[in-house]
Amino acid sequence: MLIQNRMAFKEWGGVCAALGQGIQSVIVRKGGIHEGRQGFQVAHREFWLFPTRFHQGSELLQPAYCDLLKAPIAIEPASGKIMLALYAVVEKVLELKAASTLHQLDSLQVLNQETILNRFEYKTPGLFVLLIRAYQLPQPFQLENEIQYDGCRTWVELTQEFPTSNLTPVLTDEQFQQQLLTLEAIVE
């Protein structure tokens, strides 16, 4: 793991809450408007999770997980503030090309089938699934929101590096290994 890092990955606050609670260990990504012609790329293997609220709503989640939007990480912070509480290390990257496998992701993540299918079908059919090992801080870092963080983009370079020394894994090694096995069973 890096000693410090300034790269952040923008993700819905509800999904960040699920990652922080160990409910899910995957990120399902298509890419934002500003991703360019190549679309989404896994440009960094470690990053801070940057919770967003744009395009987020309970109707996009599986019904059992709508309460995630009430979690502190999912709630809009004080004006002009960003809270960094979670760090992610990418352990595996898969690209799904068959819509028939999408329903198998239900047990690994909190988005509903319609949301996943919409992402899959956007522009060119396909989705990236990133298996991540999530780590949490005992006390979140609070930083000022900057204009360069705005927009529909996945990757954000923060104005400073933040240390990773106080992180603890959300899942035990055994729990994470089970998530890996479940994901591998889907794509075999």
Automatic annotation (TrEMBL):
It comes from the Bacteria. This is DUF1802 family protein. The lineage of its organism: Bacteria, Pseudomonadati, Planctomycetota, Planctomycetia, Planctomycetales. Pfam families: DUF1802 (PF08819).
